[in-house]
Amino acid sequence: MQSLSKKQLLDSLQFYEGIYHQKTLDRLERIVRGKEKYCTRNRAIKDYTKNNQAVLRASLENKVYGGTEQLNQVKVSKNHISLLWELYYLGSQPRSVLPLHLQNLLKHPLDLTTHWPYERDHDIVFGEKAHDLRTSLRYLWKESKKKSDLIEEAINNFQSQKWLLQKHPGNVKHTNYQDDFLDNETVDYNPDTSNEHSNTLLSFLKESVQQERQQLIFPVHEELNEDIRNNTIKDVMRHYLFLKNHPNIFQLFAAGAYYATPIVNIPMTILGHDVGIKRMRNIFYRKVALMRSTLIEEMPPLCDPLHDELQSIIADENLDKKTRQLYKKVACKSGTYTADGKLGSSSFALSSLMLDL
């Protein structure tokens, strides 16, 4: 497919005057001319692409125009809805307008990963409240709509811990530390209690682990102070709880995350030990990545200026029925909601765009 020049893109906008509202066309024109930035987020990178105009050109060619051969055969389709959604929910929302907990989730992933809340299978099976799954966090999150009060209480009481440094000495994983922590090699010590030498080794490990744990196990990243870190994680939990308590609007199940909890569940081996440090580390990485993609890329909140623009477009009396339905479908695509930016006490609310549909 031949790429369209800037002039071709500007000229072709006239074909869509009957499909998009004039405010949307004006926004597209400003982006094509380079007067307004078009931001996109990628799961593989933390920052936005630098070539905003190229991203817009690719979106316009593939999602709207369908290539140069179909410029005169424009039809309202899922591609139009997809472009509008990306324009308002992703492209026109820079990082600076995101709620503070989402900004921190983008800027400090390693710090949050090494302090992320978790629950061990070992504690559920062998702990003080063993065999009572109803008291576990995973059960509360699975029944989040019925147990919202208990989850809120758990969120309010949360204090971040360096999870890799909180392991029980008898269940420690000894690690060969290298400069690059991604290449750490882990050896599990599973001593045979009937072997005297094993007991001696276990005693030695128990005595030395408190002093060596931080150097041997994992370098902990501390870019945030404790209060900001705690409030960030709490707001991420509240954010996810809000989405989970509205399953008919926010299709978390379709995204593969409906039954997933925002906390990490650390599995154990058949011998009752925590899994190896490499696997555990990857579980934490995947969990934080899931929260980032769900809350920022797939079901992001809508900032006030863009929310007001969409609201004014749908309320425009001169708008024809087909165009109004198009914008309503955009509002329903991932669910529309707003969030305030006060860290530590963020609140989330369904948009009036959803309530009026």
Automatic annotation (TrEMBL):
Pfam families: GEP5. The keyword Mitochondrion applies. One of its GO terms (cellular component) is mitochondrion. Its main location: mitochondrion. Signal peptide: none annotated. InterPro entries: Gep5. It is found in: Mitochondrion. Keywords: Mitochondrion. Essential for respiratory growth and required for maintenance of mtDNA. Required for cell survival in the absence of prohibitins. Belongs to the GEP5 family. This is Genetic interactor of prohibitin 5, mitochondrial. It comes from Hanseniaspora osmophila.
